[in-house]
Amino acid sequence: MSTPAVILGTVSLDREGALPLHRQLFDALRQAILAGRLRPGTRLPSTRVMASDLGVARNTVMAAFEQLVAEGYLQARVGSGTTVTSIAPDMLLNIAAAPTDNATVGPTELSLSARGRVLAGTVRSIPDPKRRAFQPGLPAFDEFPFSTWARLLIRHSRKPSPELLGYGHNGGLPALRSAISDYLGAARGVNCSPDQVIVVGGAQAGLDLVARMLLDPGDTVWMEEPGYPGARGALLGAGARLHPVPVDDDGLDVGAGERAAPRARLAYVTPSYQFPLGTTMSLERRLRLLEWAQRANSWVIEDDYDSEYRYRGRPLSALQGLDTAERVIYVGTFSKTMFPALRLAYLVVPRGLVPVFRRALRHTGQDAPLTIQAAAADFIAEGHYASHLRRMRALYADRLQRFSKLLVEQLGHVLELGSVDAGMQLVTYLPHSIDDREIARRAEEAGINVAALSTFYLRECPQPGLLLGYAAAPEAEMREGVEVLRHLIPVAEARRAAV
In the chain, how many domains are there? Predict the structure, then answer.
């Protein structure tokens, strides 16, 4: 059965556009339902047929269908296929409600700005905080020295100094900025003064601030392919037009970016430990990226999210330390090294941008609480931070070794392991016959968190896979989680083969 012309006529997919293809398909089908071009009861073709007729991957159609079902536009029944629901939710807006004393007509998503709709449509799942296996990026916060942290918080909360109670110190407490600058210079090879450090309320707040300060709507940005969805959301929210640049074993393919979008305004990279693949950008490509940024008068966001955790040799020096033209904005966070709820991160910005970033920060509300900053400054200055990092590096290295061995023993026949040199998560590759999104959905139902590799791609994913976080999972939870995957993956493979 081919896709009816009425459906094909409603779908126009821009493969070079900023929005992922599954979101474009969702919007097109949703609009066709609301406009009445797809009437209630209309049976849609199978995902395989529609994917073939539209020339996209089946995963793309499945993702769009699932969102339409979740929002009530479609209904899927075993034996009956997928059909348009009798009443789509947005059609209810046209039904006059009986007046009441307090009746009001509230705004809907249709009231949003173009940027607002894009930002709201950039969905990032929020995992269950009670589940530790195998959530990517989750540290072992049960190993954090909370007694020490509590003592430092009490120190600054019981009788806070006047500087912690007012509006001063925009961009961060001097003590914390100095501690961060000293640490980055010694541990990461970052070349900066304390004045260049801008403290913000989380890495996402930092990415949002950079995007808003440096991008105009329509500006082209190089985005790692695959890449971090949080950065993708911040850039899209600023109105950027994302251009996916492939990543290989040497990191971002700078040459591919130069050929396709030589005048891009900005490049987003994770050079020390690429997210999600775990590769490292070679020195040759780092230098070429910096040369391009200087020549094109462009900017580079270096997201150094968890490079402290490297298990073979010392952590690699930051890209920013090679930047003599001051084109790099460095982003760091304490969410991975301490705990995510801290909401404490920082930027290192070129000297010429320091005044404007500080002024802009005052108007965004993205500052971090001063009491938290004061405690963090003491935590670093008194040596607790370095001690904690050493302990966690040893713990995570041990967990990675145990986890890798367990995966090879139990799932080596179907999973291929990616880089095992660093980080808090491990990328694994599945056979092409398996749908990684289905595995992720079923794993969530079974009580574990896994991330489908295909969700990190703006374009088509070349090989399905799973991103598995091991840092927060003790061995018992690892074994339970791997046992769940051992049952899910063969089931999915058999089901896919039977279709």
Answer: 3
Per-residue pLDDT tens for 438-470?
999 999 999 899 999 999 999 999 999 999 999
pTM: 0.76
Domain carrying residue 46: 12-90
Q: Per-residue b/e over 407-425, b at no fewer than 16 CB within 10 Å? A: beeebeebbebbebebbbb
Q: Is the pLDDT of residue 490 over 60?
A: yes
Contacts of 313 (CB under 8 A, 6+ apart): none
Round to whole Å and give the CA distance between 140 and 499: 41
Are residue 366 and residue 421 in the same domain, yes or no? Answer: no
**SS3 of 414-465:** CCEECCCCECCEEEEECCCCCCHHHHHHHHHHCCCCCEEHHHHCCCCCCCCE
| pLDDT tens digit sequence for 64-77 | 898 888 777 888 88
- Whether 221 and 339 map to the same domain: the answer is yes
For residues 279 and 273, give the distance between their C-alpha atoms in angstroms, rounded to a whole number.
6
Query: What CATH number did the domain enclosing 72 receive?
Result: 1.10.10.10
Residue in 473, 20, 61, 492 with CA at minimum distance from that of residue 229: 20
